[in-house]
């Protein structure tokens, strides 16, 4: 603050004088600081957390992507006037880690995640202290410049990768003004007659309407089996509001087989106005023809087994187990369930019998779908013989605000009120040699002091 006002006062004197004066000021400040170190802050105001200096930068970075005009959030959080109105609610949501809506547990499992939306403990403490202090504005001069948002009509990966090599659209869908959640599942051909290896993908909703109304969308992959029936063989990507695209790890490619189909699975939410003929687009960036990927990666659904019998006021738990006959690397984890699912974990039982909790979501919310993509040096490496254990917990008690009626039984099914659960995992398939090599490379990097440990990027 001091340097800002000093600069504006000194500028008319010219650059040489400015440098001298700033040096003099700095010398003065350092001396003054040393002398004052043991004092309390000069006034309570000086120490207090303010909107313009402390809170606005956090909101810009973590909230405004959704909470601004034309985006999915129910209100804008741009100015002090707007934010002040919601201060107590913001404190609750942020302290409970319900906002930003990103539910990977902190403190357990792998924390190094790409595009991690979670706030740090320090950021949460800042917001809480600010609300507790009465949500003061502070010095307007401290307000950071407004964020310049990317052009959402463009592909978000375009600056890095250029335009996509191929675009697949969903069929047009008209979203009514009112009503509950809607699902749109049209099938469209990929239009590709040769196998292609995918390097990056991005699902793009229309702008501005689709950006508000599409909560999440998955382009599933369908292939023909020997009887000529179309069967789901995996998924290509996953979009949830606020997301950008996905670039695969440098050593992996996802196969898009020739003559396949995409079945869109899009979740729309009416926004109070009719949206005519909305379409989603899937942009694909391919490796060049003839390119040989070192490994293949696929994104697939892994089911949990067993009946789900959820008694009135009851809870339940199911598990799924999986073992491969070769080593694998897990690149991403996405729990999926309906309104009763409240937690899912993913654990590894290694061939020597030791166990590791890889990831845990204990506050699952069916309104939000996230694929947690591990940092390249943090993705779990599972040697041959490892058992992967998925565990899901369901809640039909009154404590679960999403259960339609805690007085009735629920069981497995695909309606929104039925229960189901599985995880989507992107898995890179390795052989013994490459497994050894990747593990050694990682260890070397770690010894050289490569990566940070808190997983924020
Ligand atoms: C990815 C989009 C997204 C991000 C990022 C996000 N929000 Fe939200 N927020 C929403 C949506 C959508 C809702 C409506 C409730 C729901 O769908 O869960 C909401 C609801 C809220 C509510 C409750 C409003 C009400 O009237 O009940 C508060 C408070 C809130 N957000 C604050 C924040 C803060 C603070 C941040 C950043 C630290 C943030 N949100 C980040 C999308 C987002």
What's the architecture of the largest domain, going by CATH? Answer: Sandwich
Strand content: 25-35%
CATH class of the largest domain: Mainly Beta
Count up the helices.
10
Bound molecules: heme C
Contiguous low-pLDDT stretches (5 residues minimum) are: 1-44, 452-457
In whole angstroms, the N-to-C terminal distance is 28 Å
Number of strands: 24
Question: How does this model look, in words?
Answer:
This protein is α+β, with helices and mostly antiparallel strands. It has 10 helices and 24 strands. It has helices at residues 2-10, 15-36, 44-47, 51-62, 80-85, 87-95, 121-132, 158-161, 209-213, 432-447, and strands at 166-169, 173-175, 182-184, 187-189, 196-204, 214-224, 230-235, 239-240, 246-247, 252-256, 261-268, 275-278, 281-286, 295-303, 309-310, 315-323, 328-337, 341-349, 355-361, 372-373, 381-382, 387-395, 410-411, 421-429. Strand 6 (214-224) and strand 7 (230-235) form a beta hairpin. The radius of gyration is 26 Å and the shape is globular. It binds heme C. Heme C is lined by residues 62-63, 65-67, 72-74, 86, 89-90, 93-94, 99-101, 119, 241-242, 367.
